[in-house]
Amino acid sequence: MSLTQALLLAFIAGFAYFSRRFMGDLYLERAIVLGPLTGLVLGDLPTGLAVGAALELIFIGAADVGGSVPPNLPIGAVLGTAFAINADLSPEQAMVIAVPAALLGAFGELIAKAVSTVFVTAAERYADRGSTRGIAAMVHLGNLVHFLCVAVPAFVGLRLGNEAVRHLSDAIDGPLQNGLMVAGAVLPALGFALLLSTLSTRPLMPFFFIGFLLAAYTGFGVLGVAALGFMIAAVWVFQKGGASLLHGGGGDADSADSISIPRRERVRIFWRSFAIQSAFSFDRMQAIGFTWTLIPWLRRLYPDREQRAQALRRHLTFFNGHAWLPGPILALVSDLEMQHSRIGAADTAGTAGAAGAHTADAAEGTGPAERRTPASGGPAEPDRPAAEDTAPAAPEPRPRPDTAVPADDADPEVDAAEEQRRDSVKTIQGVKGSLMGPLAGIGDSAFHGTLRPLLSGISASLALQGNMLAPLVFLIPVNLVHVAIRWISLSYGFRLGRRLFERLDQSAIKRLMEGASIAGLMGVGALVGTWLAIDTPLQYTQGEQVIKLQDMLDDVLPKMIPLVVTMAAYWAIRRRMNSMIVLLVLAVAGFGLGALGVLHAGG
Question: I want to staple 60 with a disulfide (CB 3.0 to 4.6 A). Which of 165, 191, 304, 500 is the partner?
């Protein structure tokens, strides 16, 4: 591997992870994308497809949810594919390298999220000065750190590990080689088990076995079973009441509650919302990305630097929602900030008017109580002060809003305005805090837990057949849904305002989630019955006849061993066993049974 190829692959790995931070969760970092891309760079696309698909199936259930740090797929996919090509490894053998590389690569993400706390703290100092450019600089620096924490380890691994892996591959043969292949082949059972734990409920679990049996007995294929699953899910949803997510309202009611923000600003918020995970840190998570999304709108609402600083500071507090569904919260917060700015503007205007009247009176040497009104009812004429009293008096300074005012001198209008401002700030923070959790729950289960695994499983099955379109079969549909969901949720947030969540039909959401789970469970069952390739070579002689144990098992239930391994991993996950421990047990058991000749990969 040349230096140029190593640099290019390291850049690809870093950019794929960077895209999660600044370009929306486009899933460019998935193994089904990076494996083939690495193969394309190194001139061996078929190996890239096979290795990328195998690694995708292992980590098909892994997702970056909340503050968790899953295995680093960019590092695992790039290193595993590159070493497989250069050392002539099988996909199963490559997994023994790719999986540890992905697990170790997670430390890079840990470092990036820890370092980003420094940039969020620095952003607060810029917010105190009302400097939006300073906050933007911290966003980009944080994203650069996230890029480097993946690109640098990938480059070091590619340059230093290539020869070592080649020599190790040449030294491994016989039982050790078979053990490594079985260990690599058995690991996807963990990914399937993680998916089952996410999707399954007791009433829906039979759909997993339906998908498995269809694949095992009929050779229907993952794509065919998934298509059938979608149709069954559609029938299920419509028989239970349909898929309309909104109920009631409409017409004048919606128009009355719509948010009057210029379309140009809405579009700007939409595009900037892709960067909501920028400079992701452990303490504030998406806070700085949320703030960066609103910066142009806040700058327009608050030309006064002090008011803008207050707005920036209140959004640099903890926030963590789903990367695809920030739209409703952004829409509501944008509207609330506009209302808050009007409170401040009205108060400022009132203060300016009062100060002007006070100054005018002082300039004439008289106050309102000193004016004389003629008996004729004509205009009041002030007394003529002496010459030495004509110098204008300095206006009394207006007390700061946060300064205590004696009860006798308190202005009821000022107190009311200040109370209104405080209530407005509480409302803004309350909307963010109360909505981010429910929306994240919907997004994580619907997209991370169902849509992405289902599409990546279909794509992986195509890649294992050598189909070069497999990465596009994953990327294009998942991101069409992504962009559509992002725009529609934001648009409905602006259109319905605070009535959006009143109009949401919770039962329809539940029906859709059940339908998605049905399709997902059938797809996972088909993956277990098709691509978990483990069998046993054990046989014995009865008289003159050689009887193979695998044939006996197939007569009872085809693909019995893959099903048993998957259900054992699923049982361990349901018992709250750490997934890394399950991974280690599968790898060690697979290696041992493979080396002893009990199991064989590729059945």
Answer: 191
- The answer to whether residues 288 and 142 touch, using CB atoms and an 8 Å cutoff, is yes
pLDDT at 410 over 80: no
Let me know: does 464 contact 526? Beta carbons within 8 Å.
Answer: no
Q: Which residues pair with 540 in a beta bridge?
A: 547
Please, are residues 21 and 140 in contact by the beta-carbon 8 Å criterion?
Answer: no
Cα angle 19-22-24, degrees, rounded to a multiple of 5: 70
Contact indicator for 280, 286 with CB cutoff of 8 Å: yes
Q: Which amino acid is at 3?
A: L
Residue with tokens 């969540």: 501
CB within 8 A of 494, min separation 6: which ones?
Answer: 258, 259, 261, 266, 331, 334, 335
Dist CA 220 CA 208 (whole Å): 15
Other residues' Cβ atoms within 10 Å of the Cβ of residue 480:
10
User: Which residue bears the tokens 């806070």?
Assistant: 287
The greatest distance separating any two alpha carbons of the chain, rounded to the nearest whole angstrom, comes to 136
Identity at 250, one-letter amino acid code:
G
- 């209302």: which residue's tokens? 339
Sign of CA dihedral 300, 306, 307, 311: positive
Question: pLDDT digits over 135-157, tens only?
Answer: 999 999 999 999 999 999 999 99
pLDDT of 175? 85
In order of 1, 358, 365, the CA distances from 389 in angstroms are 91, 16, 7
Dist. CA 495–CA 498, nearest whole Å: 9
- Dihedral (CA of 193, 197, 198, 199) sign: positive
Closest CA to 61 of 195, 184, 199, 205: 195
| Cα–Cα distance for residue pair 252/349, rounded to 1 Å | 33
Handedness of CA 334, 336, 340, 343 (dihedral sign): positive
Q: Please, are residues 512 and 253 in contact by the beta-carbon 8 Å criterion?
A: no
Task: Write down the pLDDT at residue 254.
Answer: 52
